[in-house]
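Note to self: keep these together.
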Amino acid sequence: MEKVTQLKVLDGYRLEVSFEDGLHGVVTLSDRLFGPVFEPLKDESIFAQARIDDFGVVTWPNGADLAPDALYESFQASKVN
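Structure:
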């Protein structure tokens, strides 16, 4: 599993993410902010609190997180297309 090494919060519920092997990209999460864990992230001030934990996972203070392997695979797939 590749770890997230850099993270930048962008407007429009987007994250710019870089991985330890240099792969990077932007993910838009506006259409994925539903359910009890992700719904609070619709508040832009909470969304802006995204951080990288010690395991290279994008997390928020409310316990929401993004699996780095799924992000990595989506960026690899977009490079092929």
